[in-house]
């Protein structure tokens, strides 16, 4: 789609807003509808749009395999690591109340951090799945 | 320092969190070392939990500080502490085996992904076993199942993909049925905690929802544990998966499903309902006996030894379910004991097959000619494991069959005892077929002595020696199985 000027311009305009909306869904998730999973999917969709319009190879340059792979692992670690922090603070696993002196603030920060982990992993997995399908039939790291 | 109070959750969290660490580290050696540390630490925790439970009774852990029945409860009692020890122990031993086997069969470039998936599978299986929450069990069941589909598809043979797909479809149907059952129970009782469920189901037995849930759970779990005739996914999955995966899964995955069966029927529904009002005992025992004979007979005609052992697993699951179907303390004890013994025996046998694949590159019976000379230690391990499978005295297999026969005689069902002995003769046939090929047929030309490396032989022999050890000294295994049976039947 490299020579479709309108598509390229509109995509370029839309992508930052899609990403911004993803971040809104991510961090507003504990007040309104949304959360890590939805945000991750929206974020990845901005990326997939980029790959569709500008080509998979360009997209791969922006997010090489190692970035995607690290994202997948890192998100899970952030989620689980939050639980480990509460363990180290002497409470039960994933007991967010222990994260801050004030239990309500602790619960708040806890849910925010684990949702961030979910968001990172979901966005990375979505991208990885897209790359895997888009890369079918051509040579390269799969 | 994290106190031992947190052992129940660390049991799952360690392998679960070290799996992404394997992905981040990438190097085959580093990833293997991480996975090895995780699996041995998990084994240590499982043993500590078992000792704690045997000494001081059930342990409960509230995840996230939310108390049961609202939050997710991890609950360790004699029954699941025993299963945890088996699963974590096999997971740890197979991990030693994995290094060279994975390097050979999967390659070092992708090895880190294998170790990450393996740890996820282990975490899932341990999670299924330790949780006290019926829905949480489903989540862990899916973690272990999804990762095992991936592990199976890593097999060298292209048919591994088909086998993994077949297991994916049937496994998903099983898990969905389980979920529908749990959903119906939730609708009736409004709770998901197992103990709470058990309490609230009392007096509700007549409700249609409860009965439908019971039926869905029975079929779903039976699919997962490959109860004859729902075993179709198992032979292919075991035959084409990488050696280390087959060894691990054969000894753990179906065993954990059997534990789920025990938990659902004994703890949630209770013996009275499951075996009194519902004809579960009759159905289980009929299918178990059918499995013992049909699967053993099919095993005799297999030319692929891994497939043969897989059919033999279906038959051995029959023995375990037969004991459970009797619903007496001795019967359940025999079932749980055979679960333990069979995990050791079959794990050892599949690892021996892994050694053979490493050197010979084939699991076809014709390629095993003269193996007794070419790979004496591997062949000896196979024979020792085979004897256990048949149930020769001084092997673990004998002990479980002994208890099974005792349980049958206790009920006065002497014909069941006869059937157990008769079906063991079928095992003699298929084990002998391999032994004959290995020791009595001359090796092909140019076949020198090529014993498997120590990295493969040592873990194989650990399992084989353990299976002989627990055939002689049964204090630990039979004792723990008895405690487990008492806990499940509420007599302890």
Strand residues, percent of chain A: under 5%
Q: What spatial form of chain A do the alpha-carbon principal axes imply?
A: elongated
**Structural class by sheet pairing and helices of chain B:** mainly alpha
Give the termini separation of chain A: 23 Å
Question: What is the distance, rounded to the nearest whole angstrom, between the alpha carbons of the first and last residues of chain B?
Answer: 35 Å
Topology at a glance:
The complex is a heterodimer of chains A (142) and B (492).
Chain A: H1 5-27, H2 36-54, H3 56-62, H4 65-88, H5 103-134
Chain B: H1 7-25, H2 28-56, E1 59-62, E2 73-76, H3 78-105, H4 111-130, H5 134-153, H6 159-189, H7 194-201, H8 208-224, H9 233-240, H10 243-268, H11 270-277, H12 280-300, H13 305-326, H14 329-359, H15 371-374, H16 376-390, H17 396-410, H18 414-439, H19 454-472, H20 475-489
Antiparallel strand pairs in B: 1-2
Helix pairs in contact in B: 1-2, 1-4, 2-3, 2-4, 3-4, 3-10, 3-14, 3-19, 3-20, 4-5, 4-10, 5-6, 5-10, 6-8, 6-9, 8-10, 9-10, 9-13, 10-11, 10-13, 10-14, 12-13, 12-18, 13-14, 13-17, 13-18, 14-16, 14-17, 14-19, 14-20, 16-18, 16-19, 17-18, 17-19
